């Protein structure tokens, strides 16, 4: 997905003290603190080789959320390019200073595919898939974390703020503190943090927690995640304290929920542009004017509940609560982590389900499910949001889910109904969505039926409330509150 251009990202949001160096009133050069961001991925990934190599935007919620923040702060982004082997030197792209980290093939396998995505990812998402506990993957996880920590230490100036992101980087805060005790270090987890019953399965649980305890602030998407963390820390390490304040090795650590969000202004502005409106009408015409559009947009991940959603739609048609003359489901799914076997299995299952539903219910000119397995440009995603009457966001478990916020932000004066899983972090804020349990297929089919039949004034009223929430608590508000905590 292309990163929105700097101009489109709008006004200065003031969540961090501007540039690292400023000229004071008396002509004295005063130093202010810069912001270094560390995440597994850079906001761009390298595709192609040699002379054909080029940068393409990376997919996922972390990049969507952090891009405007890092650009605004004029800080640096430390991350991996998405390919093993040598990394290019530091460079600037679309107004962001990139500091690439080189990972060997063994590190990509052990650190990224194995430990991050076969152990932590499934375990932290309610063990929806059985996590693997492969001791061979620990050494590359440690060495990769050390590379990220060293890269950040090399670009940070004295007293800078460093913001470490997500489950791949568990060990970075402590490693960085050991190298650079002058830095203020924050950590934010984008995915759920599990309860003790699941976390305790990890053979490396103490080391992972001690890694995070290197931070001054540890942030989570929800209060439940923050509480789960504080409890396991007191259980498995020497840290003491309450759910929100821990004391460890003579230092204070703040623990809290900081629900992430989106650049709501950008989505609203983009949704109202002439090109988006034209494209949205084109999409509507192509799927058949007069048919209501149910839309889903996800990374192709087993946590997103895509198969459950398809089965619920099938049930809706089977029960006769809707027909292909009245409605169509559009599922856009961006390929993700395809080298992890569970993702390949998931893809096959989804494609078989789409085939089954279309085989049974489609009519000439009336395809039941339009399935696009590709990443779209951010602008194209907004055109789909603008075209959709009902947005279905039904993960089995999700840290937040930004799609649930992007849809309301893109619906100024347009109504529309959001169906949202109770198990997405976003459900804590978006209470006027139709909340569903994605494992209850009958309940989901009921929700689809109710959404399609909801009177327009009720849909507009609910959408108005969702929009206020998303606009008030946008990504700048999120960054500001985290930065306030981090500055101490
Ligand atoms: P995750 O971080 O697990 O991928 P989120 O819902 O929080 O989940 O964020 C996903 C981000 O990726 C959103 O900004 C969404 O618009 C974008 N996205 C998801 N699927 C696609 C797709 N098929 N094409 C383009 N963008 C997508
Ligand atoms: O937090 C979810 C996450 O792991 C983010 O790091 C990223 O936005 C997204 O999923 C995509 O994952 P990957 O970097 O593995 O492609």
Description:
The protein is an alpha/beta fold and 488 residues long. The protein folds into two domains: 6-261 and 476-487, Rossmann fold, CATH 3.40.50; 264-472, Glycogen Phosphorylase B (Rossmann fold). The protein contains 16 helices and 20 strands. Strands 7-8-6-3-9-10-11-14-13-12 form a ten-stranded mixed sheet, with helices on both faces. A six-stranded parallel sheet has the order 17-16-15-18-19-20, with helices on both faces. Strands 1-2 form a two-stranded antiparallel ribbon. Helix 11 links the parallel strand 16 and strand 17 (369-372). The two termini are 35 Å apart. Residues 1-12 and 18-31 have low confidence and may be disordered. The chain binds adenosine-5'-diphosphate and 6-O-phosphono-beta-D-fructofuranose. The site of 6-O-phosphono-beta-D-fructofuranose has 12 residues, from strand 3 and helix 1.
Estimated share of beta-strand residues: 15-25%
Distance between the termini: 35 Å
Number of distinct beta strands: 20
CATH topology descriptor of the largest domain: Rossmann fold
Number of structurally distinct domains = 2
- Would you identify the regions where 5 or more consecutive residues have pLDDT less than 50? 1-12, 18-31
The secondary structure category is alpha/beta
Q: Could you give me the name of the CATH homologous superfamily of the largest domain?
A: Glycogen Phosphorylase B
Computed CA radius of gyration, to the nearest angstrom: 23 Å
Specify the CATH class of the largest domain. Answer: Alpha Beta
Put simply, the count of helices is: 16
Strands side by side in the biggest sheet: 7-8-6-3-9-10-11-14-13-12
Spell out which ligands are present. Answer: adenosine-5'-diphosphate, 6-O-phosphono-beta-D-fructofuranose
Shape: globular
Helix share bin? 40-55%
């Amino acid at each position: 997905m292309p990163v929105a251009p700097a101009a489109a990202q709008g006004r200065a949001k003031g969540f961090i003290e501007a540039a690292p160096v400023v000229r004071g009133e008396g002509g004295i050069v005063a130093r202010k603190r810069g912001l270094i961001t560390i995440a597994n991925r850079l906001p761009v990934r390298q595709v192609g080789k040699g002379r054909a190599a080029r940068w393409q935007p990376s997919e996922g919620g972390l990049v969507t959320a952090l891009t405007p923040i890092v650009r605004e702060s004029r800080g640096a982004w430390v991350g991996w390019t998405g390919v093993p082997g040598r990394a290019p030197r530091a460079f600037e792209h679309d107004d962001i200073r990139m500091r690439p980290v080189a990972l060997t093939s063994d590190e990509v396998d052990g650190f990224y595919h194995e430990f991050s995505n076969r152990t932590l990812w499934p375990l932290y998402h309610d063990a929806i898939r059985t996590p693997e506990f492969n001791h061979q993957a620990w050494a590359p996880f440690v060495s990769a974390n050390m590379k990220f920590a060293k890269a950040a230490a090399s670009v940070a100036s004295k007293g800078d703020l460093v913001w470490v992101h997500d489950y791949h980087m568990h060990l970075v805060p402590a490693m960085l503190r050991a190298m650079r005790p002058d830095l203020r270090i924050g950590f934010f987890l984008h995915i759920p943090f599990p309860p003790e019953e699941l976390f305790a399965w990890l053979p490396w649980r103490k080391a992972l927690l001690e890694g995070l305890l290197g931070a001054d602030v540890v942030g989570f998407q929800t209060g439940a995640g923050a509480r789960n963390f504080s409890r396991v820390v007191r259980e498995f390490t020497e840290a003491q304290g309450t759910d929100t304040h821990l004391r460890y090795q003579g230092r204070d650590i703040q623990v809290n929920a900081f629900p992430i969000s989106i650049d709501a202004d950008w989505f609203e502005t983009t949704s109202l542009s002439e090109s988006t409106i034209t494209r949205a009408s084109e999409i509507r015409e192509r799927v058949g004017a007069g048919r209501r559009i149910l839309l889903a947009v996800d990374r192709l991940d087993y946590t997103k509940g895509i198969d459950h959603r398809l089965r619920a739609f099938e049930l809706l048609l089977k029960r006769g609560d809707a027909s292909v003359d009245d409605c169509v489901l559009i599922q856009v799914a961006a390929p993700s982590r395809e080298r992890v076997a569970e993702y390949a299995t998931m893809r096959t299952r989804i494609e078989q389900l789409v085939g089954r539903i279309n085989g049974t219910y489609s009519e000439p000119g009336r395809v039941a499910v339009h399935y696009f397995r590709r990443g779209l440009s951010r602008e194209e995603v907004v055109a789909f949001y603008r075209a959709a009457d009902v947005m279905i966001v039904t993960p089995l478990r999700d840290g937040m889910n930004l799609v649930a916020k992007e849809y309301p932000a893109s619906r100024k004066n347009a109504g529309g109904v959001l169906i949202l899983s109770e198990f997405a972090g976003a459900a804590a804020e978006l209470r006027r969505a139709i909340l569903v349990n994605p494992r209850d297929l009958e309940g989901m089919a009921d929700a689809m039926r109710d959404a399609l039949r909801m009177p327009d004034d009720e849909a507009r009223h609910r959408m108005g409330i969702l929009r206020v929430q998303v606009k008030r608590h946008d990504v700048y508000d999120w960054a500001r509150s985290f930065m306030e905590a981090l500055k101490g």
